[in-house]
Write a structure and sequence with these properties.
- With about 475 residues, the protein is α+β, with helices and mostly antiparallel strands.
- The chain has three domains: about 210 residues, no CATH class; about 80 residues, Signal transduction histidine kinase, dimerisation/phosphotransfer (DHp) domain (Helix Hairpins, Orthogonal Bundle), CATH 1.10.287; about 150 residues, 2-Layer Sandwich (Heat Shock Protein 90), CATH 3.30.565.10.
- The protein has eight helices and twelve strands.
- A five-stranded antiparallel β-sheet has the order 2-1-5-4-3.
- A hairpin with a 2-residue loop joins strand 4 and strand 5.
- It is rod-shaped, with a radius of gyration of 50 Å.
- The protein starts with a helix and ends with a strand.
Length: about 475
């Protein structure tokens, strides 16, 4: 519990007082990591140097003590042995505390240690008090051995001045060098992150200047293929889509305004004529025309609302739909039309995942288009192809040139006089059909046919 509270307190403190920019955070993080690594490395370096020098000193002192002890065992302390290389002194002490022999620099000195020999063995210790020439520390090796005159202890020592000097020098160097090195790392990291983030700041500044009226502008793409360059390319691609969407929206508004203007103008003219000629004999014709234009306005408004829902990608409830049964019902409902629908369903039970309402609207729009431009026949076929449902609506009308087969799915698109406004419709039926097919995971295309036009819908698992 206490640890959790401490963690939360640290998190709040960091959010409040910690660095706020990525540049500062990166610099602080890199500097902290480098400082910690250098501190650990410095401690390890000082420890290794000190341990190595102490081991050398201990080896020299032990060699001196062992040599003198070997001579004492055979009673050959006279003449005095020489001080070996690396050792500073030695002293031989009897059981009663007498100094039996000593190096020249300890001549006349009493026993250095109050301990008396008890049993043979070796003991190593470090003395903090100087014994010779004011040395601060001495490493002393005590070797106790049997001699013809009884137990004696040989003290051999060496100064740790080299180890202390190296410790002091290394510590002083690190105390000066480490802060400079850490400061250098901080400065280099600050400069490098600043240079690396400079394109990001340029991208941010450009994005801040772009409004809905400046969607043609693009963010600068830095040289290279790093993450920032890919980010800039992605943002420019997003701006491309936004600009294209804005162009489509403005074009759609302009086309919708144009399409609405005609029936509204006609409707107003008819009403003005009715007011100018109050003769009831003319009213049925005027009201009939006004009703026709009102119906067209209602259809256009409904189509625009559906397109808005499709553009917004609103979620729709889907279920398993028997497309064959749906097609038959729609064909039966058109038996009294100018061109009856010839229906051919290959097999029963062609199930697809989708919205019954939207699938019905899709097929209805295709049939409306075929009946509007067909001359003598309209055919509707449905079959299964590799797990996908394939629906085709064919008419024997003037057909669509290959170059215009994608244009017919554009909103308010009209190709020629044969498919003109006088033929009826809002100019949105095929656009709505294509958007519904795409929204349900299918495809709607114009297929090749010898005469007339064939629209092919492919929807299902393998579409």
């Amino acid at each position: 519990m206490a640890e959790a509270r401490a963690t939360r307190w640290f998190g709040r403190a960091w959010r409040r007082f910690g660095p706020k920019t990525v540049r500062a955070q990166a610099t602080l993080g890199a500097t902290a990591v480098v400082a910690a690594a250098l501190a650990v490395a410095s401690l390890a370096l000082v420890g290794l140097l000190n341990a190595n020098l102490v081991d050398n000193a201990e080896s020299a002192a032990q060699q001196q003590a062992t040599t003198v002890a070997a001579l004492a065992e055979v009673g050959r302390l006279t003449p005095l042995p020489q001080v070996t290389r690396g050792a500073d002194f030695f002293q031989v002490i009897a059981v009663d505390g007498r100094v039996l022999a000593a190096s020249p620099n300890l001549a006349g000195r009493p026993a250095l240690s109050p301990r008396r020999p008890v049993r043979p063995g070796t003991l190593t210790s470090t003395w903090a008090t100087g014994l010779l020439h004011g040395e601060p520390r001495q490493l002393v090796v005590e070797v106790t051995t049997d001699t013809p005159d009884g137990l004696v202890t040989v003290l051999a020592g060496t100064s740790l001045r080299d180890a202390d000097a190296v410790d002091s020098l290394t510590s002083a160097s690190l105390a000066v060098g480490l802060p400079l090195l850490v400061l250098t790392v901080a400065l280099v990291t600050w400069q490098v992150t600043g240079r690396a983030l400079r394109p990001v700041e340029a991208i941010r500044a450009e994005m801040a200047e772009i409004t809905d009226r400046d969607l043609h502008r693009r963010v600068p793409v830095p040289a290279g293929r790093d993450e920032i360059a890919r980010l800039a390319c992605t943002m420019n691609a997003t701006l491309d889509r936004l600009e294209a969407s804005g162009v489509r929206q403005r074009q759609f508004i302009a086309d919708a305004s144009h399409e609405l203007r005609s029936p509204i103008t006609v409707l107003r003219t008819q009403l003005e004529v009715a007011l100018a000629h109050p003769d009831p004999a003319f009213w049925p014709e005027l009201v009939s025309g006004a009703l026709e234009d009102t119906t067209r306005l209602q259809s256009l408004a409904a189509d625009l609302l559906l397109l808005a829902r499709l553009d917004a990608a609103e979620p729709v409830t889907t279920a398993q739909v028997d497309l064959g049964e749906l097609v038959r019902e729609l064909a039966v409902a058109r038996r009294g039309d100018r061109l009856p629908v010839e229906t051919s369903v290959a097999t029963d039970g062609i199930l697809v995942q989708g919205s019954p309402l939207w699938l019905g609207r899709l097929v209805t729009n295709l049939l409306d288009n075929a009946q509007r431009y067909g001359e003598r026949r309209v055919a509707l076929s449905l079959r299964s192809d590799g797990g996908a449902a394939v629906l085709e609506v064919t008419d024997d009308g003037p057909g669509i040139p290959a170059a215009d087969r994608e244009r017919v799915f554009e909103r308010f698109a009209r190709l020629d006089d044969a498919r003109s406004r006088e033929a009826g419709g809002t100019g949105l039926g095929l656009a709505i059909a294509r958007d519904i097919a795409t929204h349900l995971g299918g495809t709607l295309t114009v297929a090749d046919t010898a005469t007339g036009t064939c629209f092919r819908l492919r929807i299902g698992r393998d579409c």
